[in-house]
Amino acid sequence: MPQGDKSKYTDKQKRKAAHIEESYEARGVPEEEAEARAWATVNKQSGGGEKSGSGRRKNETAKRADRKDSARRAAATRQGHSPNRGSAQARRESGSTSLAELSRADLLERAAELGVRGRSRMRKAELIEALS
């Protein structure tokens, strides 16, 4: 049996672990391994025992700050400003950039615009060579 006391888990978490364990056993996984994997899955999904409810770990001040930040970013997006706009994107739009300064994602975008075949499998250096 996996380590630890299972009494702290909710009934829902216990049912979920039992269902996952049955699924693993049906696929031929040994019983002990299936149980360990099931509890590992429950822990990964819910963070362990007695963790029901959303946002339990944040205090009101942190929640308020997150809401304010989210509202600020939404307002900036509505006004046409991207909050995550990087300098590589700004250089690309200004037209004064060398290909080496761009990220691989930016190079992929340019390659798509030009119809470069096989671009999705290319490394950054290969993309630069194909775009040159």
Automatic annotation (TrEMBL):
Record-linked InterPro entries: Rho-like_N
Region Disordered: start-end pairs: 1-102
Signal peptide positions (record): none
Sequence ranges of Basic and acidic residues compositional bias: 1-30, 57-72
Lineage: superkingdom: Bacteria
Segments forming domain Rho termination factor-like N-terminal: 99-131
Protein name: Rho termination factor N-terminal domain-containing protein
Organism taxonomic ancestry: Bacteria, Pseudomonadati, Pseudomonadota, Gammaproteobacteria, Pseudomonadales
